[in-house]
Write a structure and sequence with these properties.
The protein has 6 helices and 9 strands. The chain is an alpha+beta fold.
């Protein structure tokens, strides 16, 4: 409750009585407590989401509808050589330089392609990521538009992983199938 008491005076200024106004604030306090509880729950959910993204071993990059980075998890940072604060607001192509590893030629960024095609995009085999440091890794990914409930695209998310080790094993296996184990000559040249 909120209570306000005022004195009442006559024309000569003498006190002739008191006026008391009492307001029941129960509903207002319940509303404030509910609001505070909702804000606390929302903040806890945000923190849990951030901890989850930080724990994912795959790289995760989110952009706004213009293709500017809004989120870069630690795994993406490790692979790209950028951290969240450095990458924030930059064009995704600047952060994720994707190339055909065999030729070194840039491949269209999957986030830009998912904006154009309005669907999930997967990288071609042989695609790689050139890190800010100049190192590279074989890459496997998917990029998908982020949509509102009414279907409007408000950004994109790209999830990717370093598959260098897997592709190295595949290349070694293919080489050993096609070449003599002793001489390393192609199977067709053995006589």
């Amino acid at each position: 409750m909120r209570v306000v008491i005022d004195t009442m005076h006559d024309d000569a200024g003498a006190i002739v009585g008191y006026a008391k106004v009492t307001r029941d604030l129960t509903e207002r306090k319940l509303h404030e407590e509910t609001l505070l509880s909702s804000e606390t729950a929302l903040e806890a959910e945000r923190e849990r989401l951030q901890v989850t993204l930080d724990s994912i071993a795959d790289g995760v990059v989110c952009t706004d509808e213009l293709g500017k980075v809004t989120l870069l998890n630690p795994a993406a940072g490790e692979m790209s050589g950028w951290n969240q604060s450095q990458a924030y607001g930059r064009p995704v192509e600047e952060i994720l330089q994707i190339v055909d590893l065999a030729t070194g030629i840039a491949i269209g960024n999957p986030i830009r392609r998912c904006f154009l095609e309005k669907t999930t995009i997967h990288l071609q085999d042989g695609a790689g990521l050139i890190a800010r440091t100049g190192s590279s890794c074989d890459l496997q990914d998917s990029a998908a538009p982020i949509r509102t409930a009414d279907g409007s695209i408000i950004g994109a998310v790209m999830v990717f992983q370093d598959v260098t080790r897997l592709r190295t094993i595949q290349r070694e296996s293919e080489f050993s199938k096609a070449h003599d184990a002793l001489t390393s000559l192609p199977q067709s040249e053995r006589a």
